[in-house]
Amino acid sequence: MKRVFLIVLDSFGIGAMPDSERFGDVGVNTLRSCATSAKLHIPNMIAAGLGNIDSVTCLPKAAAPTGAFARLTEASMGKDTTIGHWEIGGIVSPNPLPTYPQGFPREVLDAFEAATGRGVLCNLPYSGTDVIRDYGKAHLETGKWIVYTSADSVFQVAAHENVVPLEELYDACRKARGILQGKHGVGRVIARPFVGDPETGFTRTANRHDFSLEPPAQTMLDAIQAAGLDILAVGKIHDIFAGRGDSEHVFNKSNADGMAHTDDYAARDFHGLCFVNLVDFDMLYGHRRDIDGYANALTEFDTWLGSFLPKLGPEDLVMITADHGCDPAYTATTDHTREFVPLLVLGKAVKPVNLGTRPTFADIAATVTELLGVTYSTPGRSFAKEIVS
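^ that's the sequence the OP posted. Answer follows.
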């Protein structure tokens, strides 16, 4: 293969894993919840075999699927973006990244305040929209950072764009990233800028930026880059892998923006991997428990997919998967959900085949590198020979 387009529909789970209750998730299923919405219309993914995947019962099955398909198991101990993408990239994480259900310890906050010259508000697990509603006014009055976390391994810093310039916010997050190492090595430090006022309300802007922990071992991105091939990163991919491995990157303002960037890269003659993350599913709809919004976003992606597939050449293929779940109907929490994820593989050279239930997301890394002729060692097992002649 000359070009692989790997697209992560961030949080698009397809059903609870056997250990999901250990993660606080009972009976979760992101796809099934979306299938209850009249907004869901995904004929291209259904034709590819999404409804044929093991244990998917909420969609019709294609009589003659147009692609290869599988159900992927997360082998890592987590349900967050960082660990999910690292596993897609070839690294299985047996130990979870640290989380802070009671907030961060004083040693972390003292170091952050000393490094940035501003105090801290909140320091609790919180919804991102709720935290600016509840602490936005105090932030405007004091100039203190709004620091919060979630069930995921994240240190999030919110600041009003008219109070704290974006570059100061980003610099503060870089300093936090330097502090949060070792036992406090959270997966991501996230800059969360917002605008608005107490009377009309506060809203987050598109100027979010993630500062990730560096992967602990070589990923498929490193291997592909070392082989002299292209790695084109779209959306959060550059941040998730701490800027390691990509030869070019572009950030997204929305799913539509990310799909447009993917179209732009498809129009170019490159050799390697275009790795795409579309985060709106998770950020705008999963965490906000918006079933119709999530379903409509899937519909918009499916419509785009129908226009994208004809752009694939004879040596191109597209893989569609996810990094975890975020069931929009699960009201016990507003966090990610521990779920299996789908895999759809489409292209002119792809044989329609049921790849079954795979033991790890890392099978993707093993397959992508084999398809591109790149040597890479990973716990994953390649299915390249099963999908192409």
